[in-house]
User: Fold these one by one.
Assistant:
Number 1:
Amino acid sequence: MRVSTMLSIANLSKRHPGAARPVFSGLDLAVAAGEIVALIGESGVGKSTLLNCIAGLEPANTGTILIGPQARDIVRLDEAERAALRATAIGFVFQAFHVLPTLTAAQNIAVPLLLGGIDAKQHMARIETLLARVGLAGFGPRWPATLSGGELQRIAIARALVHRPALILADEPTGNLDPRTADEVLALLLERVRDERASALIVTHSRHVAQSCDRILTLTPEGLE
């Protein structure tokens, strides 16, 4: 039986302007539908840059990045097309949460819907369901300033999933949390990604986080191992 691929990278290279060396070059990577892959490596090797290239937040110099069941190459899209693809096919969980302080928890979760031109009011049941599934039932009206770091990251996970993306990108999703909360949030993230039948690429320095994923890849100056 053929297994579909939600992320396929071929011969990807990235060099910052004026830099003597590329951040990485000739990278090949595939993430299957429903697969959760951990990406580890030393600081400064380009893990976060790779995620940003995959999301179309930074331009790659060469190569292809095919995303979702339609295998659209985000490298070849213009900015409006990249934003549209992010709004439909990609969910992002950041280390620093990036929860907007002027929006309630429910409004933060709804942001990807709004970016995709979807009326969030028609999807309040989806938002409330996700709040419950991340352990925050009834937190919709709460303001970010009243939430703990673990609760903010739970909001970020719900936000990444609300538009049912094919691919979740997570950049050190437990890096700003204490060990106990980190374990709880990690278990929740993996559970929710699997429940939504999404694929995921998770950048982490934590060997524990990596070992909880389906596969571990190491990014080195020589490439992916």
Note: The helical segments are 47-54, 79-89, 105-115, 124-133, 149-161, 179-195, 207-211.
Number 2:
Amino acid sequence: MKTAAASTSTPDAGEAARELVGQIVEGLGRAPQALMVFAAPSYDHESLLAELNDACPGALLVGASSAGEFMNHRRGEGLICALGLSRNDVRFPVAVAWNIRSDAAAGARQIASSFSGLTDHSFPHRSALVMTDALAGHADVLVDELTLATGGQYQFFGGGAGDNAQFQRTSVFCGREVLNGAAVALEMLTEKPIGVGVRHGWEPASAPLRVTEADGMRLVSLNGLPAAEAFEAHARSTGQKLDRAAPIPFFLHNILGIETGSSYRLRVPLAVLEDGSVPCAAEVPTGSVVYVMRATTTSAVEAADQATQAALAALGDHKPQAALFFDCVATRLRMGEGFGDELATVRGRLDGADVLGCNTHGQIARADGQFDGFHNCTAVVAVLPE
């Protein structure tokens, strides 16, 4: 697979688009067949997409607003990063689910119905980049139903669109359109495997807690008591402070882990409401068993390293051409400058291949032999072969 990575911090969307296309065309030696774009929320996304499409007519464009962007040694909170792809032995159809807020399962079936690999078996490997509007919710359902609708034949990687943790407006991109309440997928049918790795580095720090009531992304009660009281009890027992009026400093270091049997699916608490309920970045099912989790900068770096190794192992004997990397905006905020160490570790494993991606409001991963679904605070690495 032929790829070319590009990034820019030029504030004008039109000029930024022209810079990106220039870098990509120079790297590919031709216009891209497909274009993945991750853009900071400060940009005029409509103008950006219009200029990119005018400059690359016929290219399939997908992407999302982001919450921190990076490419190789460059990272920031006001960048656009893009990856152009081109190869005769790869097929790149695009699919859209228009309203996942009201019916994510139907949205998943809508995406799957556009996948050509379900009927055309010319290519042995089937993958898709999936980006969803995180604020629309139901991302867990979307990924689970995508897996069912594709009969487990596909692996998925990607994440939730971001807005630098403001949780006001997150968007996904398809062609010239900036979409809200939607999900987009770039199907990738390939002769060689795409390697996907996923790890998080968190471990339980509390006794198990039963979710006795939840309403979508709002966690109402744990063990029959208001959810905030369980977090406050954990804060007292561990010598920490939880300020209900400003809980983010506590929540960044004390997230929830949903027990899955083999691992933990992570959820980031976002606030404490007057009734003691706690909104989270994604759904926490009623009846599930959860733990307050802990992690360190070292464990996060190790998790990213392990995810990269797993992705490389899935390539077999093929060499890496480029890698997409997604991790949570909460990870970036919690680690601060230490997040640079995580990125450096991923780069170091990839033997000079381009690494680009963004911080997301949740991460999507579904790969053989690895836990799957929609996550928070989790490192997802997708390695594209030469």
Note: DSSP finds nine helices and 27 strands in the chain.
Number 3:
Amino acid sequence: MKKVLFLICLLSFTTIVFAQEEKSNIQEKDSIMPEEKSNILYDGSPYNFFFDWRKKPTESHWTGIGFAFSNLNGLDQENVNLILNRSYSITLNIVDYNVPLSYHWLFVTGLGFDWSRFHFRGDAGLQRGSDGITRFLPDNEGRSFRSNKLLVYYATIPLLLEYQKKIGGGRTFFVNGGVEGLINLYSKSQVEIRTNQSGIERVSYRDLNILPINFRLVLRTGFDDFSIFGYYQPCSMFQAGKGPELRSAGIGIALN
């Protein structure tokens, strides 16, 4: 009986010793395995504000101010041309919210604003006709236009996927893309007409049948706080059958 108890104690002691050695070997192997460095810190603040000077552990690259020259696809009116060097949009993206997806990927949403101005050359301005359809129409008295423009102001809500990676010198390369929802806040057509008395008469037209909600495709890339971006609006700015088929597109720069 004593021999049996002795053998059981010896077997138990041997098992414990081998288990301790195996655990030590596993810990040594794990310490040797290199860890992949991540751009994304999961414990960082998910919010970024344009007016916040503090550097965040994790930052997306959407907030900031930008400027883009704009074009209008589908403008085929006779005697009306877009003045490209005077057609532009100013963007102010004030806040974003990011969700880390992996080592280098973020999902980004937020809130911003877009002020777009389109200047035309020609004696016909956008206005709503008696049939309720928005068209380029001349002055009733045949007078010439000194200026002719369309103003559209939007609130923007992005849904973006962003990739970012650290490069040499601690700089961050990034690229993001997706869609921006557009909520029409204000829009009008404004013309300045030359009168017979060599004066100027300013006339504004509202209720132009511009879509209250629209979207555009966006792509942005850059380093650290500087980026180049572009956008394209695949749907017309105006309600179907109630205005011209005009789709905006632009390219510009931004400080993030």
Note: DSSP finds one helix and 13 strands in the chain.
